[in-house]
Amino acid sequence: MTALRECANCGTALNGPYCSNCGQKASDYHRPFWWIFGEFLDSVFNYDSRTFRTIWLLFAEPGEFTRRYNDGKRASLLPPFRLFVVATVVFFLTLQFTGLAMVAFKVKSVSLADLAPEALKQLQAETNAEMVIKGDKTIDVISMEFFVPASAVEHVKLTDEQKRNVLGGSESIKIEAQGAKGDEAEWLAWLGERAKRIQEGYERALADPIKLNGPLNTWLPRLMLVLVPVFALLMAVMHWWPRVYLAEHLVFSTHIHTVVFVAFSLVALAAAILGDAGFMWAIWLILAIYLWMAMYRVYGRSWWLTTIKFMALLLVYSTVLTAGFGLVFALALSEV
Hints:
Layout: H1 33-45, H2 49-60, H3 64-70, H4 80-98, E1 100-111, H5 117-127, E2 130-134, E3 138-149, H6 160-167, H7 182-207, H8 213-238, H9 246-274, H10 280-299, H11 303-334
Antiparallel strand pairs: 1-3, 2-3
Helix pairs in contact: 3-9, 4-9, 7-11, 8-9, 8-11, 9-10, 10-11
C-alpha cells in the first residue's frame, strides 16, 4: 500500500490536493517560474477554469451567473465581491495606463455675433453646457467632457471677468446665520465654509481640469460601495413577494455593478484609441437592456411585469445615482 504524502504544515496524511486538518494546499514551490506565476494568479484571482466560466456567464447570459450562485452552484464560480473589487481595480488601472482624465471642464468664449439663435440653442443642447452671457458680445460656454486624454486638456487662466460671470465672484455664496444659536450656528458656519471651498475648487478645476480627477478617483469607489446595497434594497422593495432574501439581492447588485465597471473600462479603452467618448449613450443603452434581461432571468417574473419593475427601478435608481454623483462631485471639488 502506497503511503500518502504528509501535509508540510501540520504533518497530516494527505488524501487530495488540500489538507483535511488545516486546509493548506499541497504545493511544492521547487517548480519553474511559470508554474509559480500560475499559482500566484490562482491564489489572488482564482485564475482557473472558474474565471472563464464566470466571465462567460456574466456577459453572454445576463442574470445566469446570479441565478446559479443563488441556487448554490458556487464552487464553479468566482465570489461576487472579489469580482467586483477586481473590476473596480481594472477600471482605475485602465485610466492610469491610457492616460485619460475621467472628467474635465472646458471653458470656451464664443461670439454672439457669429451665432444664430438656433445655433446657440443647438450648441447648448449638444454640449450640455452652461452658458453665461457677457454683455451683448460673447458668452462663456462651460462644458463637461468624459474620458478625455490628459495630454489634450488645456490649462487656462481665468480672467477676472470670467470669474465674475462664470463663478459669480468669491462673495456669491453666503449663508446667513443671524439669530442662530448653539449647534445650529455651528452647522450653518460649517455649511458656509464647505460651500465656499466647493466654489474655490470649481474655480481651480476650471483652470486646471486634471486636478479634479484625483479626489474624484477617491470618492467614486466609495459611492459605488454605497450604491451596491442601495440597489439591493430597491430590488427587495420591488420583489417583496414571493420572498427573496436580501443576500440574494446583494449578489445580483454586485454582479450588475461589476458589469458597469467593466463597461466603463471598455469605454476608456475605446476612448483612448478613438480619441472620443461620444458613444457613451450607446453603452448606457446596452447596460439598460442587460439589466432588463438579467432581472427577467434572475427573478423569473413575466416579461410585462419585469418591464414594469424595470421602468420603476430605472426611474428611482437614476434619481439616486444623480444625487450620488452630485454629492461626489461636490466633495471632490471641495478637495481640489
